[in-house]
């Protein structure tokens, strides 16, 4: 029996995408049943999922009956501009909350997320409208996503001044090569009792090693023909990251451990995350079962953990353990 680990949460970036296996009502229903069987009872979705097909993921989950099956369902405020401007205005939050709840078929969500900082709407208005909808009973928790430590502090300060509901969860990028949040953000969250939900646990598939070895890259997001290839390559196709993956591959091969399995097990048992935190599982194919089973194998061998820590230290020293591309 492995030690306790962070909660596993199904991310939904590709739900409804023609590039994924979960693009029809039947396939999403199959996914929902698989998640339940595996003990994954938490779903995170955005009205922007899948890319270019707003609201479809929420609608598919609603049609699959997640409301009546006991899942915890999180949703985010709807964003219409790349810079998220206006997304947290009182009117947009109203539309976001009412629309998402209706599409998902739930009366109350588990978490409402502020997806990205909205720098055009006064912060007091944003904090106040979140408190209003929380007190209306539309969600159990509120969370911040992709906020800097400075922005988190500013939000908390208004909550304390006005006695508004505080965020109790935070969602951000975190994996074995992107570890910048360990420096300032994680200590800040711990100070205020805020849980951390890590997304891009596998670095958009980069930690599979395919982009580094060039083997099996066809059809993945690192295939030059894939529509998302420019975005993920801009983020991860860097010499220091390829070097890190090469070292990881060398370390896990003697143990017969896949690099993606090592990445998940490191996050769940050796990273800055704890039992009350969360790890987002993203999958464009029915890989969820394999990923959950990987986590259930427990902590990694000590030599693999040492190697990952050495890689993290090296990336930190050269400024390569973070990215300015969200």
Plain-language structure description:
It is a single chain. By secondary structure, the chain is α/β, with parallel strands linked by helices. The chain has a domain at 7-205 and 272-297: TIM Barrel (Alpha-Beta Barrel). The chain contains twelve helices and eight strands. It has an eight-stranded parallel β-sheet. Helix 2 packs parallel to helix 3 (90-104) and helix 4 packs across helix 5. The model has no long low-confidence stretch (mean pLDDT 93).
Rounded radius of gyration (Å): 19 Å
Averaged pLDDT:
93
CATH homology superfamily name of the domain at 7-205 and 272-297: NADP-dependent oxidoreductase domain
Q: Biggest β-sheet, characterized? A: 8 strands, parallel
Query: Which strand order spans the largest sheet, edge to edge or round the barrel?
Result: 1-8-7-6-5-4-3-2
Helix content: 40-55%
**Low-pLDDT segments, ≥5 res:** none
Top CATH class of the domain at 7-205 and 272-297: Alpha Beta
Number of helical stretches of at least 4 residues = 12
Distance between the termini: 36 Å
Question: What is the strand content?
Answer: 5-15%
CATH topology of the domain at 7-205 and 272-297: TIM Barrel
Number of strands: 8
The arrangement of helices and strands along the chain is EHEHEHEHEHEHEHHHHEHH
Structural class: alpha/beta
Tell the overall outline: globular
| CATH architecture designation of the domain at 7-205 and 272-297 | Alpha-Beta Barrel
